[in-house]
Each structure stands twice: as C-alpha cells, then as structure tokens.
Design brief:
104 residues, alpha+beta, 4 strands
C-alpha cells in the first residue's frame, strides 16, 4: 500500500500547534523536522517511538519504521484515547519493532 500525503496537526503547548504535510498510511504519518523524519499518530499528532530505532535520516528509513510499527497489533487509525491502552500493553512489541527497523 502506498503512502499518501496529507496535512496533519502536531500539538505543541509551548509554541502552538504546527500543521505539516506528512506521508500517511494506516493511521501513522511521517514528516521531516530539522533534518530528521518523525513518526506520528495521525489522529492525535503524538510522536511514536521518539527518536529511537531505525534510520530517520531518509524517507526510505522512516517508511521502514512505519512498516515495522504497523506489524504491532494496534489499530493506529483510531483516536489516541481509544488506543492508549493497546499502546501501553504492546510497549515491548513497539520497542522491538523499532529495534528491528534499525537493523534493516
């Protein structure tokens, strides 16, 4: 499945919300910020995985991270308040997916 471009809002309580163009797929999005790619939950704009795991310098690398995260049993297309418990329950699987993406 291809990644589609769409505008998403990233919340920031200090500097105000930021609207960015992101490559999105199945509820996750990737956008470039300060020479590095970020992976976010599209519905909430929350960062997934922080700066850990994978090659975040290239678009190909961040797509590998997104593909690894999509293998985790979490429905990323739902709002964050509905998947918060799933994310917490699968924290180990998410960290493992990030480390797997780093090795690719």
């Amino acid at each position: 499945m291809a990644h589609s471009q769409q505008m998403i809002t990233i919340p920031n309580s200090i500097y105000g919300d930021r609207t960015v163009t992101a490559y999105c797929r199945a509820g996750l999005g990737a956008f470039k910020l300060h020479k590095r790619w970020q992976v976010v939950h599209v519905a909430s704009g929350m960062s997934i995985g922080g700066g850990r795991g994978g090659d975040r310098r290239t678009r190909k690398g961040v797509f590998a991270i997104m593909d690894a995260l999509l293998q985790v049993p979490v429905d990323w297309s739902k709002p964050y308040d509905q998947i918060g418990k799933d994310v917490a329950a699968n924290k180990t699987a998410i960290m493992l997916a990030l480390s797997t993406a780093r090795d690719q």
